[in-house]
Specification:
Its main location: membrane. This protein has a five-stranded mixed sheet with strand order 8-15-13-10-11, with no helix packed on it. The two termini are about 20 Å apart. The chain folds into three domains: about 20-225 and about 270-290 and about 590-834, Up-down Bundle (A middle domain of Talin 1), CATH 1.20.1420.30; about 325-445, CalX-beta domain (Immunoglobulin-like); about 450-570, Immunoglobulin-like. The radius of gyration is 37 Å and the shape is elongated. It is an alpha+beta fold.
Length: about 850
């Protein structure tokens, strides 16, 4: 016959009751309160040691190896490739890290219960799966800000894990109810466990595109904490943005690499472990691993920029340039325009270089198609630049007439630029250099509406530029208000992939001569050989204007310019050189692990806020105060950087097992003194307690990540792994034990009904309550997955979307969880009464 219960004299768990039989005579209310508080406190403890365990896993799975590739041009580049495939890591070590307490609870319960099955472990796994699938997904759907949405990117992997998550629980019903009722045979136990590597293999094949031409993509750079893979396109974009942010800084390659390393680490996709670790630390006032804003980018290397700037200042003494030549040139590239109705045009002459000498500049106008005395007033003279002067203006009068005519132009030439008193000798170079010696002034007729044309009909732009600007000119008249339509069309370059299509109408006011069309360019990988074009069109001019005619004088209904988008080859080389430096960059502030025991003990006694700039809040202090003993105990675990995380992995796993055994004792004692069956305790308190860090992790992931993969896909993957590992492993152990030992008298006494049906014995798992619970969960899971599929098809997103739909979805999921709990509890209670 079964022995005394865990809370009765003579009974006990692995560690508890702490005071032996004396404790079992205490007041029931006091014992229940102590066990409940101890259970809640132990949940915090197992979350903290799981944090260390997952940091070790992160260290293991983020391991990289250098790979050298030779480009088409013969150049080589080296980048770091992850040893672990992301999907495989998610479904193996990372799933183990996330679900270690539930899995170990089931294993410990089986091995410490003389290899008889219990209710606590299996029910915790099913209850945790229900909470994850219904409550965590409800939170993720609702938490997305209004007007935003998130979709699953690796949908093939999601479909695989979602299918297996349902089949896993259907399989439990089959083996417990249909094939061998209430008995798990050796073949069934091993099959359940072997479904785990089968799931991993299929998910991997889907991820790499074995079943289709579309793979998740393996190209890119492995970046920082979280082991995320940053696409080459995004890395190129980061380098371009940083150079744009500091346009006037002569940033060294090392400083630029440090800037890029920190920004890339912030942007790289974060693994499931990353969010789980951060969720736990948020609960207990620990050091966060998420950088909350862009301040980090400037702060991390600000001192380096200042140092570089100071070095440059010391090199040139901080004084104005006194040596070298003086440069004289026209501004605006020597191109000026003026309306025929304007009284004058201003032409500016600029001086750069040595400003410490006096310079005389002689200029004179010359006819082009515009004639002096008819279209403009001839001008000539000398401009004197005194010391320190940088610019002088020449004003030239314009002559108006009432005749409609084409646009005309004339020239302004710099005849000489000399230093007064300078004596030229053979071998002695002139101190003044004229850079642009002639300017062109175009006089636009103001008696017509004008003709529209592009300033350039063929434009080349790099794919790293944020936009291309097309200038539309108004020639042969600028009278009155005119307008013209503009639009874009695809060539080899495609809208939404290479550029963003624009269209509209340009309105020119009276005498307005130039308008700009700004077309956003979408950056792509700098490593693709790319030369793709799209087109920009002008059409439908207003009545008093026209489009540019062809060379033969034929009228056109549409004027077209071609924009060719090409690679930024220089940026490609710069990205390559930066990436080779990045592995040496100090990104410890973004790391999830530790390198020294001293660091661990300092963190154990330090309370942290949201980031280094934000002081801790009251909740941080409370969480820290409650968990300091746990933090100090687990600081004894080896640092994650030792042995590439393997040593920390092993020690932390043992510690999780110890705390999980303590949780099992406390949960059993609490249920026993309150008269609550283990199955009910498991699907409520234990399931929620072990899943709480996952709630924080999924919430943060859903809000911060651009896709829903981390928050949605990992729920289904975790649920599958929980069955295949959390039940497959202990059931295989139990089935092997009973297959080896055979039936015993104790077994017959414990399961008298099964002894009749299975005279040879076996690993007994009474199907009554567990089978019913699994069936209810499976039905609810099918509804949840059906709703998520419908959201993808109708709303084009799994998370967020229109407010009314996301609230309705969240409410439905929570109601399903309440239904699951209610039906499961009622079934267990009805079985207990019988």
């Amino acid at each position: 016959m079964p022995g005394p219960l865990i809370c009765e004299p003579g009974g006990g768990g692995l560690f508890l009751p702490l005071f032996g039989e004396a404790e079992q005579h205490w007041d029931t209310t006091v014992r229940a309160a102590l066990y409940l508080l101890g259970l809640l406190w132990s949940f915090l403890g197992v979350a903290i040691v799981a944090d260390i365990f997952m940091a070790a896993i992160e260290q293991v799975t983020s391991k990289t190896r250098p790979v050298t590739m030779v480009g088409k041009d013969g150049t080589t580049r080296t980048y770091h490739m992850q040893v672990w495939n992301g999907t495989v890591a998610n479904l193996t070590l990372m799933a183990l890290g996330s679900s270690a307490p539930e899995i170990l609870l089931a294993v410990i319960e089986t091995t410490t219960n003389n290899f008889y099955s219990g209710d606590l472990g299996p029910s915790t796994i099913v209850g945790s799966a229900a909470y994850n699938l219904m409550c965590i997904l409800a939170v993720c759907v609702i938490v997305i800000p209004d007007g935003e949405s998130r979709s699953i990117e690796q949908y093939g992997v999601f479909l695989t894990t979602a299918t297996f998550s349902v089949l896993a629980y259907l399989w439990l019903v089959v083996i417990l109810v249909v094939l061998t009722p209430s008995i798990v045979t050796l073949a069934e136990g091993i099959t359940t466990f072997m479904l785990f590597p089968i799931l991993v293999t299929i998910a991997y094949l889907v991820d790499v595109g074995y079943f289709s031409r579309k793979a998740s993509g393996s190209h890119g750079f492995v970046i920082g904490a979280g082991g995320g893979r940053l696409p080459e396109q995004e890395m190129t974009k980061i380098v371009a943005e940083i150079k744009e942010r500091f346009p006037n800084e002569q940033i060294s390659k090392e400083v630029l690499a440090e800037l890029v390393a920190h920004e890339a680490s912030r942007r790289a996709p974060k693994s499931r472990m990353y969010w789980r670790i951060n969720g736990t630390r948020q609960m207990v006032g620990g050091k966060r691993v998420i950088q909350s804003d862009d301040r980090k980018l400037d702060e991390e290397v600000g001192s380096s920029l200042v140092l570089a700037k100071n070095e440059r200042a010391s090199d040139d003494g901080g004084a104005p340039q006194r040596e070298g030549k003086t440069i004289i040139t026209f501004t605006a590239g020597g191109k000026y325009s003026v309306s025929e109705g304007d009284p004058f045009v201003t032409v500016n002459i600029l001086r750069t270089g040595n400003l410490e000498r006096v310079v005389d500049v002689r200029y004179k106008t010359h006819d082009g198609s515009a004639k002096a005395g008819e279209d403009y007033k001839a001008a000539e003279g000398t401009l004197r630049f005194e010391k320190g002067e940088v610019q002088k203006a020449v004003k030239i009068g314009i002559i108006d007439d009432d005749e409609a005519e084409t646009d005309e132009h004339f020239f302004v030439k710099i005849l000489s630029a000399d230093v007064p008193g300078f004596a030229w000798l053979p071998g002695r170079s002139a101190p003044v250099v004229v850079q642009i010696s002639q300017a062109t002034v175009t006089v636009y007729d103001d008696d017509m509406g004008g003709v529209f044309l592009f300033e350039q009909e063929n434009v080349r732009t790099m794919d790293t530029h944020r936009e291309v600007v097309m200038r539309v000119l108004r020639r042969e008249g600028n009278k009155g208000r005119v307008s013209v339509d503009y639009s874009t069309s695809d060539g080899m370059a495609m809208d939404a992939y290479d550029y963003k299509a624009v269209s509209g109408r340009l309105h020119f006011e009276d005498k307005e001569l130039v308008k700009e069309i700004r077309i956003p360019i979408i950056p792509t990988s700098a490593y693709d050989d790319k030369e793709e074009e799209f087109y920009v069109h002008l059409s439908n001019p207003s009545e008093n204007a026209a489009l540019e005619r062809t060379a033969s004088g034929k009228a056109q209904s549409k004027v077209t310019a071609t924009v060719v988008v090409v690679n930024d080859s220089d940026l490609k080389k710069e990205v390559d050189s930066i990436v080779t430096l990045m592995p040496t960059m100090n990104t410890d502030k973004l790391a999830v692990g530790t390198s020294q025991w001293r660091e661990q003990f300092v963190e154990a006694v330090t309370v942290r806020g949201e980031d280094e700039q934000t002081p801790p809040k009251l909740g941080d202090y409370i969480g820290h105060a409650l968990t300091v003993p746990w933090k100090l105990l687990f600081a004894l675990c080896p640092p994650t950087m030792l042995c590439d995380g393997a040593l920390s992995f092993g020690v932390a796993l043992v510690m999780i097992g110890v705390v999980t055994a303590l949780i099992g004792d406390l949960a059993g004692l609490l249920g026993c003194v309150l008269g609550i069956p283990d199955a009910i305790t498991a699907i409520t308190l234990v399931a929620l307690g072990t899943s709480l860090p996952d709630t924080f992790a999924s919430l943060a992931s859903a809000k911060a990540e651009p896709t829903a993969d981390s928050s949605v896909g990992n729920v289904t993957g975790s649920n599958s792994v929980n069955v295949f590992l959390g039940l497959g492993l202990p059931w295989s152990i139990g089935a092997i034990f009973w297959a080896y030992t055979g039936v015993t008298d104790e077994w017959r006494e414990r399961y008298p009904d099964l002894a009749v049906l299975h005279p040879n014995g076996g690993f007994a798992v009474p199907a009554g309550d567990l089978g019913f619970t699994v069936a209810v969960f499976t039905a609810c899971a099918l509804i949840v997955l059906g709703v998520m599929t419908a959201r993808r098809k109708l709303l084009r997103c799994e998370l967020g979307g229109p407010r009314k739909y996301k609230i309705a979805t969240g409410a439905l999921f929570v109601c399903l969880w309440v239904l699951y709990l209610s039906m499961s509890i009622l079934k267990v209670l009805s079985s207990t009464k019988r």
